[in-house]
Amino acid sequence: MMLTDEQYQQFGQQFVERFLAHGFGAMTKAEIEILVFHLLSASAELKGKSNYHLANQLKITESKVKSLRLNAALKYKPANHKAVLATIVTRITEEMAKPEFDGGQVTITVENPVEQRELEHAIKSVGRNIEYGFNRELLKISPMALFELVVANLEHPEREFKRIIQATIGEKNKQQAIINDSLTFRQQLNKLGGEVSEKASLIGLLSAAGGALLS
Fold first, then answer.
1. How far apart, in Å, are the Cα atoms of 188 and each of 18, 26, 48, 178?
2. What pTM value is reported for the model?
3. What is the pLDDT along the chain (215 residues), one digit of tens a residue?
4. β pairing state of 138-141 and 106-109
């Protein structure tokens, strides 16, 4: 059973309320489908599951699932931009922690269209290009490019950058070389990329930046 008894009751109540909100029959077939998908998404059978799983459960194509996911989010649950980025940072640092990560680009799957939309917006906002694999759900990005992206989306980028460097880089000389006031912010970012390459340090930087998104 996809919904519990309590969820069935909530589903019915919320559906009727929204269906009648603008008059009986005012909602189009597409709007009804989006509403039903949104309400069903709370069930244990669907919540947090892959596009493949949802497609099988609902007996529709994966492209239809993506469309419903995005439209339902836009209409009923607008994405928290910073929270989405923080979630992606967490997934990337988990990939980086694996033994096979060699310090180059990280590849993760971003199949949720809401996550993909927010990530693309964030990347384009700092003038970066998105590098997808053959499958557009596979994202490739370097840890330092992701760090720059996250910092740029903080409320006070330069101040937070300085705080993160002081909190994660223990060597005072290296700290001072990076956050040198004679350098522009862009030069400081470039300096950081030249000074930090160890996996543990990169993970520490990204984890701190991801945490700053939610503070």
1. 51, 56, 38, 5
2. 0.72
3. 577 788 888 888 888 988 888 899 888 999 999 999 998 887 877 888 888 889 998 899 988 998 999 999 888 887 788 888 888 889 888 888 888 777 677 788 888 888 888 888 887 777 766 665 567 777 778 888 888 888 988 889 999 999 999 999 888 888 899 998 899 998 998 899 888 888 888 889 999 999 998 88
4. antiparallel
Provide the CB-side half-sphere exposure for 118 (13 A, CA). Answer: 22
Find the helix or strand (DSSP H, E) in which 75 lies. Answer: helix 62-76
- Both structure tokens of 212: 């700053």
Q: Concatenated DSSP letters for 85-147? A: HHHHHHHHHHHHTSTT--SS-EEEE---HHHHHHHHHHHHHTTPPPEE-SSTTEEEE-HHHHH
- Report the C-alpha dihedral over residues 28, 81, 17, 15, rounded to 10 degrees: 70
**In whole angstroms, what is the distance from residue 59 CA to residue 64 CA?**
10
